[in-house]
Write a structure and sequence with these properties.
heterodimer; A: mainly alpha; B: alpha+beta; 5-stranded mixed β-sheet; 15 helices; binds protoporphyrin IX containing FE; binds iron/sulfur cluster
């Protein structure tokens, strides 16, 4: 019943979440993981899967880390200076 | 690279005297680097305006990593286009900061080729700090550094590059191998160092003995400080030699022992080791006569930080004594539990020490599965977090 969600599937869900938030709200990697675990349920998606999914998103260049007082995960975008 | 020397009357004042001057170093760098030259310009302007002309953070980084590059931009880019982007790169230093000279030369060559040529070598984090590069140089510098066996260090909301004192490599007081531990932790936490996943920074620093040469207690969220739990090793004859050579053992050693647990009757030094707080004072004064005991390990402390978002804090005792031998399972399990708890429940930009203040040490200990102990209390009656619940239950 509690079929585990694949890393690819989690990465897709995270990518959508990060895209939806882009320009609206900055997400911390851990917030993305928490929301994803909540969405799929902890029995189907654990922290390890989330970590792998974030690795996939960043290593493939689909997402990037940014720093504005703390570290965030966002879609790649032109260089922007902090205000 | 300017033909004419940039006039810097204010900075020039800081070149006076025979001692080293950062202005002189910047001017030397400016001979070969337009970036270093314009840096002088920005600084001269700052001294006139009495404001810093820098902003930090942003989108810059190398692919795959969320740490190691600190974006830095000038707020006067039109005036000083060469330093419009002036990013910092942190390079993970070897444990204890041991380098062969060619390794340093290599780093310097890479940096002269791609960056401003300026470094303040080791920052407060411990990393090699390369100061001033343009966004376009990030990937080339990263590639050349990694080809030469270097990697970036931590920055942002990550486990920061662990650092330690020189330890047993050249200090007789090391109570554990700070270098081996730091190397091991650096390898173990590679993901946590490069990929931000925490509420804020988390620094680990290790000192081999309570002299705490890396100031772990004040600068690290997790401070690992060497100590011993048996008796101080005393060579009575050598104490006698110190006394014969004119050392007033009573006044300079016994009377300054914070625990007042030592006595000297002119022939023999008596230490009540059960009252000794392992401060190192007596050992520092008479290194030939006294040594840390033989049952050595470290005290693990938590919560230290410099004042950034809120005030400075010193670390306080979490585990009074832990043996530290590879593969350091007990320590890694403890760190794992702390990172997990604070990672889940810490607020954005809340250091672990502030987190503990917010939730209370009692709840924190319960959540990571440690029993409260008297050693965790800084001063008597000041930390009312030990509730002795078992006694309350008996009364019911
Ligand atoms: C203005 C009135 C009071 C003053 C000046 C006062 C002062 C003190 C002082 C100096 C202590 C010792 C604290 C320490 O050792 O760190 C103490 C402890 C204590 N007081 Fe009071 N107190 C007052 C009123 C009260 C009242 C009205 C109660 C109870 C209703 C109370 C209950 C206690 C208890 C239970 C302790 C022991 C706490 C502990 O050991 O942790 N006090 N008080
Ligand atoms: S902290 Fe102690 S062991 Fe480390 S270098 Fe200093 S005195 Fe030596
Ligand atoms: S180490 Fe410090 S507390 Fe212990 S006996 Fe020496 S001076 Fe006293």
């Amino acid at each position: 019943m509690a079929e585990p969600v694949s890393v690819d599937e989690v990465a897709e869900a995270m990518f959508r979440m990060i895209s939806d938030a882009q320009g609206v709200r900055k997400l911390k990697p851990n917030d993305v993981s928490k929301a994803t675990i909540e969405r799929f349920g902890p029995e189907r998606c654990g922290k390890g899967t989330c970590k792998e999914a974030i690795r996939q998103l960043v290593d493939s260049g689909r997402c990037i880390y940014t720093y504005f007082g703390g570290s965030y995960i966002e879609l790649p975008r032109p260089e922007q200076e902090p205000s | 690279m300017s033909d004419e020397r940039r006039p810097t009357p204010k900075l020039d004042d800081l070149e006076k005297g025979p001692w080293p001057s950062f202005v002189r170093e910047m001017k030397r760098a400016a001979e070969g680097s337009a970036m270093a030259d314009q840096l002088l310009g920005v600084l001269e302007l700052s001294y006139g305006d009495r404001v810093g002309h820098w902003k930090h953070g942003g989108v810059v980084g190398v692919r795959g990593y969320g740490a190691g590059v600190i974006g830095r931009y000038s707020d006067v880019p039109e005036q000083f286009p060469e330093v419009a982007q002036f990013h910092t790169m942190r390079v993970n230093h070897p444990a204890g900061w041991f380098y062969k000279t060619d390794a340093l030369r290599k780093v310097c060559d890479i940096w002269e080729k791609h960056g401003s040529g300026l470094t303040n070598l080791h920052g407060a984090t411990g990393d090699i700090i390369l100061l001033g590069m343009k966004t376009e140089s990030l990937e080339p510098v990263f590639a050349e550094l990694t080809e030469n066996g270097f990697d970036l260090g931590g920055s942002g909301s990550v486990v920061r590059t662990p650092s330690c004192c020189v330890g047993p490599a050249r200090c007789e007081w090391a109570c554990f191998d700070t270098l081996a531990l730091t190397y091991d932790l650096t390898q173990h936490y590679q993901d946590e160092i490069h990929r931000p996943s925490l509420p804020y920074k988390f620094k680990i620093k290790a000192s081999g003995c309570p002299n705490d040469c890396v100031a772990a207690i004040a600068r690290a969220d997790l401070s690992i400080i060497g100590t011993w739990r048996d008796a101080i090793d005393v060579d009575q004859e050598a104490v006698g030699t110190y006394a014969a050579d004119g050392l007033d053992v009573r006044a300079t050693v016994c009377d300054r022992c914070p625990s007042k647990c030592m006595a000297w009757d002119g022939t023999s030094l008596d230490i009540d080791n059960s009252a000794c707080v392992r401060c190192m004072h007596c050992i520092n004064v008479m290194p030939k006569a006294l040594r840390p005991g033989l049952e050595r390990g470290a005290c693990i402390l938590i919560g230290g930080k410099a004042p950034i978002v809120s005030g400075a804090m010193l670390s306080s005792v979490l585990v009074p004594f832990m043996k530290l031998e590879p593969p350091y399972t007990e320590l890694k399990e403890l760190i794992g539990k702390i990172l997990e708890l604070w990672g889940d429940e810490g607020k954005n930009r809340e250091r672990v020490g502030e987190f503990i203040q917010r939730v209370g040490l009692g709840s924190f200990l319960e959540a990571i599965g440690l029993e409260p102990m008297p050693e965790m209390v800084k001063h008597p009656r000041e930390n009312p977090y030990v509730f002795y619940e078992e006694y309350f239950e008996e009364e019911k």
